[in-house]
Give the backbone structure.
Amino acid sequence: DICPLKKLVQLKEKYFYRLVVDESFSFGTLGGTGRGVTEHCGVDISMVEIIMLSMESTLASVGGTCVGSEQIIDHQRLSGVGYCFSASAPPFLSVAACTGLQVMEENPNLLVSLNQKAEYLHKALSSCKGLQVVSQKGSPLLHMRITDPTCCDKLEVYAEIVEKCLHEGLVISTTPHSGLDSTVPHITLRMNVTVLLGDKHMDSVAQILQKAVHKVVG
C-alpha cells in the first residue's frame, strides 16, 4: 500500500516524533513529477524530517541518499565522518544517478507511461483466478495473495509458483521477512512494472502467472 502520509504527519505533530520516510520505490514513480509519496499525497517536504532512498531502483545506480533539514544533515555529517572515505559512492555511480535524474526531468512522459502500464497490469492480474492483487491501483510495485485459505500463508506454495514462472521466463519473487520482525506481513508474490513493458508483455505475464497458480494450487 501507499502510506497515508497526511495521517502520519498528523500523528507526528500530535505525539512530537520525527518522521522518517523511505522513498526507495516511490521516488520517480509517484507524484505529478515523480518526486515520490510526498508529492503524491500533497504533503510539503518540510513536514518530513528525513527522506531516504536507494539509488538502485529508479536511478539505476548503487547506494543511497538522504534528504532532511539543515540540522539533521549537519548531524549526519558529524556522525558519519568515519565512513566518508570508506563508504562514499564512487564517482561513476554518482554520475549514473545524476544521469537518471536528468532523464526523468527531460522525459516527463515516462512517468505518465509508467502509471498507465501499472494500471494495465493491475487490471490484467486482477482477472487471474486464485489470486488477489492487494496493491493499490497506480502503484508500480504489485503484490498478490493466493485466495485459497488452505495455502494462502504457506511460503512453500508461493515459492513453487515463483519457480514455475521462472521456467516460463517470468521472474517474480516472494516477499522476504526477517525472523527479527515484530510484525510479519502476509506472504505475497511481488513484481515491478517498468516503462519498457508493452501490452503483449503484460498480457503474457498474467497468462504465465495464471498457469502457474493453476498447476500449484489447482
Residues 13 and 94 are 35 Å apart (CA to CA). The chain has two domains: 5-106, 109-217. Residues 199-217 form the longest helix (19 residues).
